[in-house]
Amino acid sequence: MSVDMCKGFFESSPDLICRFLPDTTLTFVNEAFHRALETNRGTLPGCLFTELIPEEEREPLMEKIASLSPEAPSGASRLGLHLSNGETHIVHWNFHGYFTPRGELVEVHAFGRDDSERERANELLAKGARREKLAAQIISDYTFCKSRSEFDEITENMLELLGKENRADRANLFQFSTDGVSKTHEWCAPGVPSLKERLQNLRSEKGSWWVDEIRNNATFYYPDTEALARRTGKTWKHLETLKLHSLAGFPVVAEGRPRGAVSLDNVPKGTLSSETDFPLIASISRVIGKTLALLEAEEELQAAKNMYRDIVEKQSELIVRFTPDLTITFCNNAYAKSFDGEPDDFVGRNLETLFPANFDYLLKLTPESPRCTTEKRIVMPDGSERWHAWHDTGLFDAKGALKEIQTVGWDITELKTAQQAHENERKRALALFENSPEAILASWDGVHIDEANRAFYRMTGLSQDDVVGRSLREILFPETPENSLNIEHLLDRVNSGELVAEEGTLEARSGKLFLSLLLFPVRSSAKNGRGVYLFFRNLTALNEKENQLLTSMKTLRTAFFQTVEVLALAVEGRDPYTARHQKRTALLSLAIARRMGLDEDTCEGVYLAAAIHDVGKITVPTEILSRPGKLHDIEFALVKTHAEEGYRILKKVDFPWRIAETVRQHHERLDGSGYPQGLKGDDILLEAKIVGLADTVEAMGSHRPYRPSLGIEAALRFVEEGKGTIFDEEAVDVCRILFAEGFSFEEETVI
Question: Residue 543 domain-assigned?
């Protein structure tokens, strides 16, 4: 090749090419070198090559140059090259020395190739390796944990390592009890406030949304405030108060049940990878669960240590290098040990003889595309099978010829197993969907039906052709105004992210059904980003039974009223005057109770108690009740027994109201001057206070055998004087208002 041709080749080469003297004074620099340093043509010759590289690399370079000889004229180094923008690119240099006949070095030719992309790839590998080693360290610590105090110490260290590695604000380990969170470990980044006191001994109902997810053995990750607000039902303002912007949770499970959760708060987007980081943290969570279980079962501790020590050994990356003909030139200890050997057992051997497989894909590596990733099933020396993921990187010389291949591998058997488990879980979920006794519809766009289970077809009498692909509105509510469920309203609510539950009727091919309908929003890839699950429970038979029960309750209530009427008639048979008095007292008592705002059920109880409040008088001789004039003391004492006697008669009837006790207390007074028990203040039932007031007003305002009527005004003045001391204040005020508005004892009142 002529000098001009050589010069043309050097100038057009994309590689960095230069020549320099033994003291590294540059004598020639090609165009690619100038472009890399963004210098003008001709400015570099005369400069020292060592001034272009980092200071710490200069002495090793000079030693490398000094080691060149006629017998070994070539060498290689990876050096940093300072660029004009302040960056440093890593360049792989091949040096070749030229010597005089006496063996003196005259000049060095250098050929450089930018290794920056490889460095970035190696950085990613280093990051993955660092995280795997971190996980291995944590798993190792838990594996050999022997006590609760040691567990707490390891956990604090684990949370700090995970938090710092993932740049989280907080890292927590929650341990569950039967009804909530029993213990909380927490690490906080500098300046981040602690939430430990708020989360310690947190009951399930206070954090049920994430406790439920963990108890269902589910890993969750909400990467932003919007996702958190949608899942938790909290407002953005509430989340901002907690300074919570993202949340990741990993279940701590042991012996088939959840023991707690590992969580990371406010991890920056892009930091956590579901493919690489989630399995590592999930492995740590599983180890924590196992450790908690092992602390409770000391006799199994040694076996568990051995098992997890083995897991630790397999966390390290496997590295092997080989030539294009697949001859192994290097392997690290992790690689050798993974195949039950030492590095010397593998160096010099051929990969195909060790692991029969097709390696043709390596021939496709080029300087432009020097990397590829594959997954391989490996048969171990003991005959077992493992899955490895391999990242292959081709190493090329200055001419682009493949010189060597470096491969970094990871054991992904657990990931494969998890993927298979996920597939099995998907199949189980599908089986549950198909075999569920409740009818289910699924719509991925919130408009059309994508799936329906067998129970839905049985319930509605429809077929798959009738349902799948059709509109939800068309199938569920096809222009039938009799339907009580408003599907438009329900779908609008669920499309806004709300969980909706309603009951109503549905016209189906199988007839009119009374249903409980649950609409559950789900994320989907549709344009609107939201789908919906619809769960139907056929309550037709239950609704009929409820109607029957309501009918029975009405019948029972009628029976209670009839019982009261019978008792009132019994009193009327002995003393017609007393019966009329009870009826009038009941009307006034009911009016007072309603005006006081008591619920209608209590008002009914007041009315019925007043209607038979003197039922105990059937034990008093008629001649005493109807005698005109003043009674003797012994006779009056006999009359006063009617309150207790009324209680004795009524207590055996299982009223849904406090009728017997109201009858017993209707002569009790606030100051304790009443009878039969001398109760005071709040010890007296409100119903008894109302009946006692109405009894007094009616008695004073009506004619008696032993005296003429005193008049309503006199009765109202009397109770007004006793307001707050004898009679209830509010009841007295209401009574006066009722009469001022024209209340009459002759009104017909319907209960």
Answer: no
